[in-house]
């Protein structure tokens, strides 16, 4: 960074800021230079001189006292001032302080000691304060000068509006005689910024121009930073960036970085990018911070291609991305659902010697959890701990949320308890996530137990917490209890919102009470809460699952008439309805219509179609749909692979099934128990016993139970091989998994 001290107009030629980025064309730079030269010459010829210092003259008696004090101080050895000046305390006044300082000013330590002694007797006046500041700066003790000014602005009940002009006047008045070091103005400018007096700082900057003084670039950068930090003043920082070079401020790379950040935070990323490109014209090469800030701006806007281009440009210039750069890219990729690519970026980051922080790992963990890839999330979670990066409550909550989504409540509960054992306190979101998971799995007793634990720990359940509980009760058909709970919620001052109503509608639909769900939707409107896309989609889903496609279509028409835009989930509901009703041709037409209208189908859309074609044993159409899905950049998930594997097994395409199994394992996805059963049986039919055995053992390691037919097959094989111990072990396992568990479920 190029450090620029306070400069005088006429003695320093400034570098120009990049006006092209902020509305000026580069072709106008010669004109601006010419304009600046004329302004500078005009300014330097019209600057006023600093005033001469002419303090009040002491009386004869005052002069004698000042002489006595000065001599006593100069002649002291190691004796404290409080002892040698004891005889003069009763006669000492603020005026005497200045007169004595005039006699001892060249002995810096002595002047400071005397000033401290005087301050303990009575508060020095403003002139004396400014004098000691000037002496400190002239002695290159800039820190003390800074502290002395800060101490003044920290005085209780100080009227800033009155004190500011007086302080400025005294500082200028004492400048010529007591220091003549322009750094004093720099320090005062910095203090004004630090205490939040930004308007006064600008006023002081303008006043100094009358004396031909320009504040240093570093101090102006501090001013830019504080303006940028304030949302209401952010635009002013850009204006200042344009104006200050015209009076002699030499902006540097740090200055440009501040403005790039301001532009990005204002959503003006293209202008920030323009400034980045124009920096080289003003002699300040962009650094890692410059690029990282623009990259982050594009990442927040989801513009991946521009991000990749900027990274390539960085590398061509020999600049290595830093932690901030990688964080931004990983977040963008995770938001785009490209979590595998995000993990590859993590590995590249580690290879570059950059240590990831909690934020990077948490972002990736959350991304994998949202995709349902819990195994990959767990792997990263373990990696964090091995790297001694302590997971925070956000990381734990992300894992708990992912496990709850997959219905793995036992594992979620273990992670929750692990939080406590590691001293990490869960917040309202963590509790609510786990409560919602238990509600969705129908374990309402545990959900309410957690609710009570949450309250006892001093956390307040919110609308989302109560909505989850009400939703769980509705799914179990306990609508009256859910209503009582919501009345309790309203009694606590919490208001029902659209999410609460949607959860109730969803709960009623899930419990098969569609009529009451429709009635509730009508009651919503009476209460002034209008149904949204989610409300209609939920009811459409209920009708589709009961095969009432006509009513689902009517709801879609009503939804469109109200001006509500269907989402991809709405179309997925319809797609699932068509497929479940055996209307595959209508499903194909819906997919074609979505693509025509620019509505990008997601994995669920394709999965519905592929599942039904697999059931019909039409693997040709299934494969075409799968290829079309991949060609459009829609990534297969765990469900996709399981559907395809079962379909190929049914069609006896065991090579394809085996290949897909390997591919999904590489991506961190797991086979379901039904997929294991299908692929094992498929290999048996093909007489591939070793492959079948390998998968059977893998299935057992995963803690999954095979069906009775498969147990019978392997019991026979073990018996035929003379391995009675294994045969008996498999018999016991079969009895436990296939018969006892079935009896337990029937009792429940």
From TrEMBL:
GO terms for molecular function: mRNA binding. The keyword NAD does not apply. Transmembrane segments: none annotated. PROSITE patterns: PPR (PS51375). PPR repeats lie at residues 252-286, 287-321, 322-356, 357-391, 392-426, 427-461, 462-496, 497-531, 532-566, 567-601, 602-636, 637-671, 672-706. The keyword Repeat applies. It comes from the Eukaryota. InterPro entries: PPR_rpt, TPR-like_helical_dom_sf. It holds the Pfam family PPR_1. Keywords: Repeat. Belongs to the PPR family. P subfamily. This is Pentacotripeptide-repeat region of PRORP domain-containing protein. It comes from Populus trichocarpa.
């Amino acid at each position: 960074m190029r450090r620029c001290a306070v400069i005088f107009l006429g003695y320093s030629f400034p570098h120009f800021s990049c006006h092209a980025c902020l509305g000026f064309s580069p072709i106008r730079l010669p004109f601006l230079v010419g304009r600046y030269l004329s302004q500078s010459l005009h300014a330097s010829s019209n600057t006023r001189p600093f005033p001469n210092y002419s303090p009040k003259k002491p009386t004869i008696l005052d002069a004698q006292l000042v002489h006595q004090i000065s001599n006593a101080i100069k002649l002291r050895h190691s004796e404290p001032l409080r002892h040698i000046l004891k005889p003069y305390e009763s006669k000492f006044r603020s005026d005497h302080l200045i007169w004595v300082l005039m006699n001892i000013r060249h002995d810096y330590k002595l002047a400071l000691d005397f000033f401290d002694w005087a301050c303990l007797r009575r508060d020095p006046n403003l002139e004396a304060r400014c004098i000691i500041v000037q002496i400190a700066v002239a002695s290159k003790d800039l820190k003390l000068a800074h502290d002395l000014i800060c101490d003044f602005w920290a005085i209780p009940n100080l009227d800033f509006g009155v004190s500011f002009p007086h302080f400025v006047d005294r500082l200028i008045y004492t400048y010529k005689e007591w220091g003549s070091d322009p750094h004093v103005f720099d320090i005062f400018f910095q203090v004004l910024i630090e205490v939040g007096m930004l308007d006064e700082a600008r006023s002081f900057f303008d006043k100094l121009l009358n004396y031909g003084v320009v504040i240093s670039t570093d101090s102006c950068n501090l001013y830019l930073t504080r303006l940028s930090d304030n949302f209401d003043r952010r635009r002013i920082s850009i204006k200042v960036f344009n104006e200050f070079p015209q009076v002699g401020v030499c902006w540097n790379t740090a200055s440009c970085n501040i403005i790039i950040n301001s532009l990005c935070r204002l959503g003006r990323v293209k202008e920030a990018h323009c400034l980045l490109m124009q920096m080289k014209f003003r002699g300040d090469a962009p650094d890692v911070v410059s690029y990282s800030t623009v990259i982050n701006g594009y990442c927040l806007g989801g513009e991946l291609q521009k991000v990749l281009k900027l990274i390539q440009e960085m590398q061509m210039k020999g600049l290595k991305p830093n932690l901030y750069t990688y964080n931004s890219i990983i977040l963008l990729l995770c938001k785009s659902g490209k979590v595998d690519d995000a993990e590859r970026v993590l590995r590249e980051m580690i290879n570059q010697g950059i240590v990831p922080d909690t934020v990077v790992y948490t972002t990736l963990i959350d991304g994998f959890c949202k995709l349902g890839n819990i195994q990959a999330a767990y792997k990263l979670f373990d990696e964090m701990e091995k790297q001694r990066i302590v997971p925070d409550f956000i990381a734990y909550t992300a894992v708990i949320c992912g496990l709850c989504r997959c219905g793995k409540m036992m594992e979620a509960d273990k992670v929750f308890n692990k939080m406590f054992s590691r001293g990490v306190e869960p917040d309202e979101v963590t509790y609510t996530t786990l409560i919602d998971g238990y509600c969705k799995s129908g374990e309402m007793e545990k959900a309410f137990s957690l609710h009570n634990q949450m309250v006892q720990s001093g956390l307040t359940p919110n609308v989302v917490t109560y909505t989850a509980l009400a939703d769980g009760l509705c799914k179990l058909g306990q609508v009256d209890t859910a209503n009582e709970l919501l009345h309790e919620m309203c009694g606590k001052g919490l208001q029902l919102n659209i999410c609460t109503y949607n959860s109730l509608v969803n709960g009623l639909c899930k419990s098969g009470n569609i009529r009451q769900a429709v009635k509730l939707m009508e009651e919503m409107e009476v209460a002034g809460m209008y149904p949204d896309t989610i409300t209609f989609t939920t009811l459409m889903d209920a009708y589709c699952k009961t095969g009432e496609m006509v009513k689902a279509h009517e709801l879609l028409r009503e939804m469109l008439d109200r001006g509500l835009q269907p989402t991809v989930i709405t179309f997925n509901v319809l797609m699932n309805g068509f497929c479940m009703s055996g209307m595959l041709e209508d499903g194909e037409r819906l997919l074609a219509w979505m693509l025509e209208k620019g509505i990008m189908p997601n994995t669920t859309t394709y999965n519905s179609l592929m599942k039904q074609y697999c059931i019909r044993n039409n693997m040709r159409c299934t494969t075409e749909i799968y290829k079309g899905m991949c060609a459009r950049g829609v990534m297969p998930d765990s469900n996709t692979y399981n559907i395809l594997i079962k379909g190929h097994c049914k069609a006896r395409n065991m090579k394809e099934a085996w290949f897909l199994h390997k591919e999904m394992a590489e991506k961190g996805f797991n086979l379901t128990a039904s997929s294991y059963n299908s692929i094992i049986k498929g290999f048996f039919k093909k007489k591939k016993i070793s492959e079948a055995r390998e998968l059977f053992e893998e299935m057992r390691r995963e803690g999954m139970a095979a069906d009775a037919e498969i147990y019978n097959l392997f019991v026979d094989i073990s018996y035929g091989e003379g391995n009675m111990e294994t045969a008996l072990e498999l018999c016991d396992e079969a009895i436990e998994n296939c018969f006892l568990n079935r009896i337990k479920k029937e009792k429940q």
